[in-house]
Specification:
By secondary structure, the chain is an alpha+beta fold. It folds into six domains: 102 residues, Immunoglobulins (Immunoglobulin-like); 84 residues, Sandwich (Immunoglobulin-like); 103 residues, Immunoglobulin-like, CATH 2.60.40; 88 residues, Sandwich (Immunoglobulin-like), CATH 2.60.40; 113 residues, Phosphorylase Kinase, domain 1; 165 residues, Transferase(Phosphotransferase) domain 1 (Transferase(Phosphotransferase), domain 1, Orthogonal Bundle), CATH 1.10.510.10. Strands 2, 4, 5, 8, 9 and 10 form a six-stranded mixed sheet that branches. Strands 12, 15, 16, 18, 19 and 20 form a six-stranded mixed sheet that branches. A hairpin with a 4-residue loop joins β21 and β22. The longest helix is centred in the middle third of the chain and has 27 residues. It starts with a helix and ends in a 42-residue tail after the last helix.
């Protein structure tokens, strides 16, 4: 450069120096940010280019004049050429991952050069797309012919957003003007109906979730007592309206007032087990029996139709009347002492059925008529006998009485002469003397044996076990200890009761609960955005089982999140198929002080990891291995068999892909990862209520359009998974962005036939991508076609063992794929060798495996059987 400058005339030198001084002060921006307008959730990139003379400065980004502190921006510096060694081209990019209303505004780049500040021309980021629901109709149960309200709210941009309500798929209220009907007033229903709302703007229509409004019978009225006896009563009531559904039965509950606690309005709270009776209707009345006399009860009633039960009536107080005592007084005696007779008795031992008001006494003799006397509450009475002569056949009877009347009389007791009774003294000791002596000897021997045992253990035991025992061979003292078992302070039942979950879910979890102390965790096998899978050991009664343990990386903050996680585990417990991942158990870790305990799901350990990593490394590993068509078709047939089972169980997977299929030790594929699966209870489809992050390249076209998922949308995903297997792990739709997938498919485009893929296989997967879901094959047809294809192929040899590089182990050592379960790793290679071939495109999506393409075609493979070209050379996978 210096020599070239030496041959330039002085005038040119002066001109160049002047140009350099001017260049330091001119606008350095070569390109300013462009305008971006898109729908909510898309990813956008803004770009600035600058030409800088000298040391490149840092480029800042502004939004509406305010500096973005936490912006996700990258800056690249490139030299302009040899003639201008100090000139640089600086490219700064700002990435917006998920566009939302807060991201809209005017964006500019700012740079400071030589004490001067320069700003680029502004680029505008706008948000336009289909309406977004802020509030959707919710399911509810209402009484027949009772008014209620439903709410729905959506926003743009673009505005305005108008709402159209639909009842049973029929429009109710047309959109008028620019005032959307956020709240719908329904004057009442007489049958169960569904409601939804459509949000309209200039970009199109979005449909909300469908809310089911269940019509229940009205609360019964006029609950009253028809007749009452001490131990039974008859009650009646008037039923409420029930719409078009006739009442099937009514349920009445009765409870003693002593068993309930009144609230602020005086209505009692029922005990755990009230007396519950069911009555067929009509008539609307019921006989209650086995009641306590003279007792206060509270009763209530509810009537049910095929849609459910009505609300309970308010607790109604009723009281049973008093009854007469059920038995006579006990131990009646009558003795003569001179001219007097002393009569004594005791209170009846049977129920009095009321309040005891007193006793009546009757006596008679052979010569006198019967005499009745009311003696009050006393339990003895002295009778004056007439004359000093003998009284012939005098008998006495006593009866107790309440407000309801007299109870039964005791049997007549004859008058007996006075005989003083002297009670013999009780023996000093009633047992034989040798019983006491034998018991004392046995107790003394037991105490002596226990004391000797404790002294012996004390000499050679610490809190950790036995220590300093002499060895048999050498007589030396060595430290020995015996590990003591430690148990969780809280039982599984106590943990379940503390969660506050529904009784139905709690009952299902009792069969799958595992004690936390029986599970030992090892290294991490894989991580996602919300959870991680770790290697573990489950200590069973007679064996140790190698397992995979699924934990959550984010804390559970609400009971709804906890129930969603546990419901997924319970769903997996019901699965019983060789090609569907089964559940071993569930346990909890953490304590109440940390909020909800963290649930941990225990799954079978899959030796060969996920199918996508297996396929990918067969092409890009250190020793690429050709996977024969027979093995690939076997993988497809296994997945089709597992999905056929799930579809018969009315489950929709919604996230079927090679990354969510696992390979066990027998090289069989198991469908796994049911984090997005849904049980379809009614009908044959599931509508996703809110926008969520979804794997768009695997989703059916109708699911992209209106978020409706069926078993046939899983068939579409299975076709994409077949394409993944046929291409040995390539990414679908190379070169097509996620935001462009829907338009790409709507134009009729589909995935191309992979290299070396059988025509019949491609025709089968192409049928999975039919625009009309009804024209797609079922999983039963897919399984049968794949099994027939597999039978028609000649047998193939098993592939050689595949290796992977595990960068989580701190040295980049290699070990067999699937040996992550704990196999002893081979010798460590040179870290430089394992990292020299790394590029950003070769990192596994889960972040666990770093793949290095081999420099050789592999062990003696023919040219037509070698692995396909690496990503970037063929499809950008």
């Amino acid at each position: 450069m210096a020599r070239r400058m030496g041959r330039i005339p002085l005038a040119w030198c002066l001109a160049l120096s002047c140009w350099g001084a001017w260049a330091d002060t001119e606008d350095p921006f070569m390109q300013s940010p462009e305008n971006i307008t898109g729908a909510r959730g898309i990813m956008g990139t803004l770009r600035c280019e600058l030409r800088i003379h000298g040391e490149p400065p840092e480029v800042d980004w502004l939004r509406d004049g305010q500096t973005l502190q936490m912006a996700d921006s990258t800056q690249i510096q490139l030299p302009l050429g040899e003639d201008w060694e100090d000139d640089w081209k600086v490219v700064s990019q700002l990435r917006i991952f998920s566009l939302k209303p807060a991201d809209t505004g005017r964006y500019q780049c700012l740079v400071t050069l030589g004490g001067q500040t320069f700003m680029s021309q502004p680029g505008y980021v706008g948000l336009e797309g289909l309406p977004y629901f802020l509030k959707e109709p919710e399911d509810k149960a209402v009484a027949a012919n009772v008014p209620f309200n439903l709410s729905c709210q959506a926003q743009g941009p673009p505005e305005p957003v108008n709402l159209l309500w639909l009842q049973d798929a029929v429009p109710l209220i047309p959109t008028t003007g620019h005032d959307p009907q956020h709240s719908l007033y329904v004057p009442g229903l007489n049958k169960t109906s569904s409601f939804s709302c459509e949000a309209h703007n200039a970009k199109g229509i979005t449909t909300s979730r469908t809310a089911t409004i269940t019509v229940l019978p009205q609360r019964p009225q006029d609950l009253h007592v028809v007749s009452s006896q001490p131990t039974e009563m008859e009650v009646a009531w008037t039923p409420g309206l029930s719409g078009i559904y006739p009442l099937t039965h009514c349920t009445l509950q009765a409870v003693l007032s002593d068993d309930v606690a009144g609230d602020q309005l005086g209505a009692p709270e029922p005990p755990e087990e009230p007396l519950t009776l069911q009555a067929s209707v009509p008539p609307y009345q019921l006989q209650l029996g086995k009641l306590h006399p003279h007792s206060l009860y509270h009763i209530r009633v509810s009537c049910a139709s095929s849609q459910g039960s009505s609300p309970w009536t308010h607790w109604h107080p009723v009281e049973t009347p008093e009854g007469v005592p059920l038995g006579p007084p006990e131990n009646v005696s009558a003795m003569r002492n001179g001219s007097q007779a002393l009569v004594r008795w005791q209170e009846p031992t049977v129920p009095l059925q009321g309040t005891l008001l007193g006793y009546r006494l009757a006596y008679r003799s052979q010569d006198t008529p019967e005499v009745l006397m009311d003696v009050g509450l006393k339990r003895e009475m002295t009778l004056e006998l007439r004359g000093d002569g003998p009284v012939t056949n005098l008998t006495v009877s006593v009866a107790a009485y309440t407000a309801a009347g007299d109870g039964p009389w005791s049997l007549p007791v004859p008058l007996e002469p006075w005989r003083p009774v002297s009670e013999p003294p009780a023996p000093a000791f009633s047992w034989p003397w040798w019983y006491a002596l034998l018991g004392a000897i046995v107790a003394a021997v037991c105490v002596l044996i226990l004391a000797m045992f404790l002294v012996h253990r004390r000499k050679k035991e610490t809190r950790y076990g036995e220590v300093f025992e002499p060895t048999v061979e050498r007589g030396e003292l060595v430290v020995r200890y015996r590990v003591r078992k430690s148990y969780s302070r809280r039982t599984n039942e106590a943990i379940l009761n503390s969660l506050g979950i529904s009784e139905e879910l709690k009952e299902k979890l009792r069969d799958v609960m595992v004690d936390r102390h029986k599970v030992a965790l090892g290294k991490t096998l894989g991580e996602g955005e919300f959870g991680a899978v770790m290697e573990g050991q489950l200590n069973q009664d007679d064996s140790v089982l190698k397992v995979a343990v699924k934990t959550m990386k984010i804390a559970i903050c609400t009971r709804s999140e906890l129930e969603d996680f546990l419901s997924e585990a319970v769903c997996m417990k019901e699965f019983d198929h060789p090609n569907v991942m089964r559940l071993i158990g569930v346990c909890f870790q953490g304590s109440e002080r940390e909020g909800f305990p963290e649930p941990v799901v225990i799954l079978p350990f899959m030796k060969h990891g996920d199918l996508h990593s297996f396929l990918l490394y067969s092409r890009l590993g250190d020793q690429p291995v050709f996977l024969p068509t027979q093995m690939l078709v076997k993988f497809m047939a296994d997945i089709a068999s597992g999905m056929e089972y799930l579809s018969t169980k009315r489950f929709i997977h919604r996230d079927l892909a090679a990354r969510n299929c696992m390979l066990n030790e027998n090289m069989s594929v198991c469908v796994a990862d049911f984090g997005l699966s849904k049980k379809i209870y009614n009908g044959d489809y599931y509508r996703q209520g809110r926008i969520a992050k979804m794997p768009v390249k695997w989703i059916a076209i109708e699911s992209l359009a209106d978020r409706v998922y069926t078993s046939k949308s899983d068939v579409w995903s299975f076709g994409v998974t077949m394409w993944e297997i046929a291409t040995r792990g390539q990414t679908p739709y190379p070169g097509v962005e996620n935001s462009e997938i829907y338009d790409y498919l709507r134009q009729g485009n589909r995935l191309k036939q992979p290299v070396d893929c059988l025509d019949g296989l491609y025709a089968l997967m192409f049928r999975c991508w039919e625009l009309n879901p009804r024209e797609r094959p079922s999983f039963t047809e897919l399984r049968e076609d794949l099994e027939n294809t597999l039978k028609a192929l000649p047998p193939a040899q098993e592939p050689d063992e595949i290796l992977y590089v595990n960068m989580d182990e701190g040295g980049g050592h290699t070990e067999p794929l699937g040996a992550a379960g704990g196999a002893e790793p081979p010798a460590q290679p040179d870290p430089k060798d394992s990292c020299s071939c790394l590029t950003a495109a070769e990192v596994h999506p889960a972040g666990r495996y770093v793949l290095c393409p081999s420099t050789s075609p592999g062990p003696s493979l023919p040219a037509d059987r070698r692995a396909p070209a690496p990503p970037g050379q063929e499809d950008g996978a």
